[in-house]
Amino acid sequence: MPRPVSASVSLSALAHNLAEARRRAPGSRVWAVVKAHAYGHGLPAAIRGFTGADGMALLEFDNARRLRALGWRGPILMLEGPFGPEDVAMAGELGLSLVIHDASQIEWLRAHEGKVVDVWLKLNTGMNRLGVDPDTAAATQRALSMLPAVATVSLLTHLSDADRPGGATAQLERFDRATLDLPGSRSVANSAALIDLPQTHRHWVRPGIMLYGSSPFADRSAASLGLRAAMSLRSELIGTQTLKAGDTVGYGSAFTASGPMRIGIVACGYADGYPRHAPTGTPVEVGGVRTRSVGRISMDMMAVDLENLPEAGVGTPVELWGERVSVDEVAASAGTIGYELLCAVA
């Protein structure tokens, strides 16, 4: 029989979280962000859970083709735009919308002789990753709209600090100033802005992490935001050990028992997507009871404290994260974010 570790995805939770995004931004259309294999949840699950989305947004052109093969007929937005002229041709073939953020991409569009494509001009309003200078927005939009290969030109930016009070103010002001009186749809809001900043909602919103039931905020739980965990990482105990004071656990003897105790060994480790750097004390649920990890995470095993779990033994179910143990709790304990843990399972 196979190892008992598994990751499952709740389609109803995906649909619920999309509905929550719509409830919070009722006047906007929704791009469901499905990059990185839908944050580790898989495109087949995403296309079923997000059937109510207005469009899908991702980075990978092979996965855009896969979305079409899976039956998605709605808009698809390529968030980093084309990586070469062949991607412009694919956009025409598959009906993809392209983010444009660099002069080289404009030249590929200029040389394109296939079907026309919709483009979204990205403005660098302060994140300083991708985007054109806001001062050139009007001229660049005008140049794009004159290209035979371009059908429509919309406008977007990406917010770097929407998860903290006042963090998006300067970027939003730059975007609005640069796009004043320009034609085309707008898109500004990511998950944090969608939840906290209704002034960013505009024509389209682009929720990502919230759709998967994880919080974009360090100080607010997903549950408090009305979100449901879509992924559950589960396993079972495959062994137990009884320790005495001074006994150590795992590689590096990172945990030392202060007195008699019993531990369980879970069939899950960093090869399965669980964070190797999760320290002793990371929350885990065994047989419906919350407990903690002990010692260092191994490639395919980890140890958990069985205090107050006298009946636990081989075969007892374990939730590493999911409906009862939030992925954000595990991530915080490991010094990272839920995004990383979810994507690592892909």
Structure description:
It is a single chain. Helix content is 27%, strand content 23%. By secondary structure, the protein is of the alpha/beta class. The chain has 2 domains: 11-214, Alanine racemase (TIM Barrel, Alpha-Beta Barrel); 231-344, Lyase, Ornithine Decarboxylase, Chain A, domain 1 (Beta Barrel). Strands 8-7-6-5-4-3-2-9 form an 8-stranded parallel beta sheet. A 6-stranded antiparallel β-barrel has the order 10-13-16-15-14-17. The protein is elongated and about 75 Å long. The model has no long low-confidence stretch (mean pLDDT 97).
Write the layout of secondary structure elements.
Blueprint: E1 6-9, H1 11-24, E2 29-33, H2 35-39, H3 43-49, E3 55-58, H4 61-69, E4 76-78, H5 85-94, E5 96-100, H6 103-111, E6 117-122, H7 137-145, E7 150-156, H8 169-179, E8 186-187, H9 191-196, E9 204-205, E10 231-243, E11 248-249, E12 255-256, E13 261-266, E14 283-286, E15 289-294, E16 302-305, E17 317-321, H10 327-333, H11 338-344
Parallel strand pairs: 2-3, 2-9, 3-4, 4-5, 5-6, 6-7, 7-8
Antiparallel strand pairs: 1-10, 10-13, 10-17, 11-12, 13-16, 14-15, 14-17, 15-16
Helix pairs in contact: 1-3, 10-11
